[in-house]
């Protein structure tokens, strides 16, 4: 496939981010940018916004969108506004301010195009408490007030599948360069990844052009299931990168007439897809990991962080597993966790402590699914750890055995998960009462929409038998 010529990243500064409108003007001029995509991530992690000529953007870089963009469901519906917000207010404009540190090119665009992630504000200057990026910033600020900084490293699993234009048909693995679809399990297979070399070359080129820092690419358990690991860093920056990477791999796949999907359980007989979050906390002044003491041993803070995750992850399950499909991944005897047990290098537990040096001691949250909003997943996971730290909680003993056969400790479905969030005063206080109320209303509306669909299972077993 012929590749478009991309701007030289050394023309003006780095491929990603500037500090001001003036720098953005120079940056875009050097790359011949003619259009700019201005977006704000919604509750589902979908970018909502406007595409405008660069001249219009430079003449007034703020953008107006209605508050209702944060009430929209994944199917395009809206929950009843009763007890949430006045319908007039829902349609009133917010002010979207660009975060110039996110400025990057759109490498797959036909014309030279840039993109910018925006933050949402009320007209009186208050941040919009429903905006997922702001929810994450609020949690990060809670850590900052204690003199801490959170460090995260996401791992995102996804499937490559044949194009599927009729939702009544199941998904199938795509044809690779050998001319054959993948069959069987090919965990960690280099050859299986090489089947899609051209696609991944485009993915890496697109990522480099946007300043996305991919660490590793591996083949996961499922047929044409892959995993991308991102380098560790600041929570908001890494959430931005996950948000952008999801779009990047979808676009790269489409160039090769393949779909990339982040559905939690896209194929019935294949493993689900996760978004594992590695987490550590450092002292803001010294940069030292507070999970390790001077002798390299785990600290009380390390155990309290784990305990907070154990106690509160069930209450944020509707964020970690946001759709009906998400719960199909969480089954007994699979590698997806069904409880909040923890252990040292134990992948069967919901919380894993990977082997590491004391400076890199961290906790891996293996519960979230890859369909989740990265801003909200990281915010929710860090919120649970924060509550454990400030409440001085103590965890259970580490599990050395297989956790897959133990009892379910996580909600089994979306409605149960939403109820757990609504009843947790602690989570509401950390994530924000208005956010929790709106989020649960949106998810309830999505569930109601799902219930209007009659599944093949119902026709198969109920049509003539009941």
UniProtKB/TrEMBL annotation:
The keyword Kinase does not apply. The keyword Magnesium applies. Residues 132-466 form the GS catalytic domain. PROSITE patterns: GLNA_ATP, GS_CATALYTIC. Pfam families: Gln-synt_C. It comes from the Bacteria. Its cofactor is Mg(2+). Keywords: Ligase, Magnesium. Belongs to the glutamine synthetase family. This is Glutamine synthetase family protein. It comes from Ancylobacter koreensis.
């Amino acid at each position: 496939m012929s590749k478009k010529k991309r701007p030289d990243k050394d023309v003006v500064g780095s491929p990603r981010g500037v500090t001001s409108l003036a720098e953005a003007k120079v940056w875009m001029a050097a790359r011949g940018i003619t259009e700019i995509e201005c977006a704000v991530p919604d509750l589902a992690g979908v970018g909502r916004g406007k595409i405008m000529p660069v001249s219009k953007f430079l003449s007034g870089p703020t953008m107006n969108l209605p508050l209702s963009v944060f009430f929209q469901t994944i199917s395009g519906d809206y929950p009843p506004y009763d007890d949430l917000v006045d319908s007039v207010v829902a349609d009133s404009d917010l002010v979207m301010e660009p975060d110039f540190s996110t400025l990057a090119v759109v490498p797959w665009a036909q014309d030279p195009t840039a993109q910018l992630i925006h933050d949402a504000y009320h007209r009186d200057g208050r941040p919009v408490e429903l905006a997922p990026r702001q929810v994450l910033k609020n949690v990060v600020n809670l850590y900052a007030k204690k003199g801490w900084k959170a460090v995260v490293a996401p791992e995102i699993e996804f499937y490559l599948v044949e194009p599927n234009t009729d939702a009544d048909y199941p998904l199938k693995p795509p044809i690779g360069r050998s001319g054959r679809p993948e069959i069987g399990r090919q965990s960690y297979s280099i050859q299986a990844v090489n089947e899609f070399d051209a696609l991944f070359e485009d993915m890496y080129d697109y990522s480099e052009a946007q300043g996305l820092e991919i660490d590793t690419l591996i083949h996961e358990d499922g047929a044409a299931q892959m995993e991308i690991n991102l380098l560790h860093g600041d929570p908001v920056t890494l959430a931005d990168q996950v948000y952008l990477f999801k779009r990047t791999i979808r676009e790269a796949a489409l160039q090769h007439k393949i779909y990339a999907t982040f559905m939690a359980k896209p194929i019935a007989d294949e493993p689900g897809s996760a978004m594992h979050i590695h987490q550590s906390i450092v002292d803001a002044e010294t940069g030292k990991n507070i999970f390790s003491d001077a002798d390299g041993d785990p600290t009380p803070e390390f155990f309290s962080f784990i305990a907070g995750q154990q106690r509160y992850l069930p209450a944020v399950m509707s964020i970690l597993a946001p759709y009906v499909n998400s719960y199909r991944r969480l089954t007994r005897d699979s590698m997806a966790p069904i409880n909040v047990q923890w252990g040292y290098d134990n992948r069967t537990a919901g919380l894993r402590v990977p082997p590491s040096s004391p400076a890199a001691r961290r906790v891996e949250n293996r519960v979230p699914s890859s369909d989740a909003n990265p801003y909200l997943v990281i915010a929710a996971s860090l919120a649970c750890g924060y509550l454990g730290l400030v409440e001085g909680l103590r965890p259970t003993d580490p599990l050395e055995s297989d956790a897959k056969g133990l009892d379910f400790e996580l909600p089994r479905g979306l409605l149960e998960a939403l109820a757990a969030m609504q009843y947790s005063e602690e989570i509401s206080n950390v994530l924000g009462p208005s956010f929790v109320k709106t989020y649960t209303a949106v998810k309830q509306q999505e569930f109601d929409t799902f219930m209007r669909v009659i599944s093949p299972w119902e026709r198969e077993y109920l049509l003539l038998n009941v």
